[in-house]
């Protein structure tokens, strides 16, 4: 049984940093791409970043490029380092996994989801 558990969310001031972690278990078959999505109140779940199974290929949403960094280990545990946070980054952040490419960024392509962790950025 695959489980993805996010941690590291919290309250941070604008311009600050936060590091989210996703603990993965049960990903025993096939190379999985790991992803981060976020969902703000009243909005749909949106892609943030992805990293392929080897960690050598990453992909970012334009809104976070240059500020966020995704990384992972061989077990699928995935981190999202978030710097220079803005109020518009406030959202519930979700970890996800799928067997496609890093550029397969539709929420419908994800095979597994975590339950999310809340990030609140105060201005």
Q: How does this model look, in words?
A:
The mean pLDDT is 94. The chain has strands at 3-7, 10-13, 18-25, 33-39, 46-51, 58-60, 68-72, 78-82, 91-98, 112-113, 117-122. The strands form 2 sheets. Strands 2, 4, 5, 6, 9, 10 and 11 form a 7-stranded mixed beta sheet that branches. Strand 4 and strand 5 form a beta hairpin. The chain is globular and about 45 Å long. With 123 residues, it is an all-beta fold. The chain has no helices and 11 strands.
Provide key terms for this protein.
mainly beta, four-stranded antiparallel sheet, 0% helix, 123 residues
Number of helices: 0
Mean pLDDT: 94
Distance between the termini: 40 Å
Radius of gyration from CA coordinates: 13 Å
User: Which structural class fits the helix and strand makeup?
Assistant: mainly beta
Percent helix, as a range, is under 10%
Low-confidence stretches: none
Q: How large a portion of the residues is in β-strands, by DSSP E?
A: over 45%
**What is the number of E strands?**
11
Order of helices and strands: EEEEEEEEEEE
Describe the largest sheet: 7 strands, mixed
- What form results from the Cα inertia axes? globular
Helix-strand layout with pairing:
Layout: E1 3-7, E2 10-13, E3 18-25, E4 33-39, E5 46-51, E6 58-60, E7 68-72, E8 78-82, E9 91-98, E10 112-113, E11 117-122
Parallel strand pairs: 2-11
Antiparallel strand pairs: 1-3, 3-8, 4-5, 4-9, 5-6, 7-8, 9-10, 9-11
């Amino acid at each position: 049984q695959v489980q993805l558990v996010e941690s590291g969310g919290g309250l941070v001031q604008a311009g600050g940093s936060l590091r989210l972690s996703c603990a993965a278990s049960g990903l025993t078959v096939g190379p999985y791409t790991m992803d981060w999505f976020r969902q703000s109140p009243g909005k749909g779940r949106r892609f943030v970043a992805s990293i392929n199974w080897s960690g050598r290929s990453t992909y970012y949403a334009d809104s976070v490029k240059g500020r966020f960094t995704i990384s992972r280990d061989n077990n699928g545990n995935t981190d999202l380092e978030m710097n220079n946070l803005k109020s518009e980054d406030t959202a519930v952040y979700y970890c996800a996994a799928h067997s496609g490419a890093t550029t397969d960024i539709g929420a419908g392509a994800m095979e597994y989801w975590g339950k999310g962790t809340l990030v609140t950025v105060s201005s």
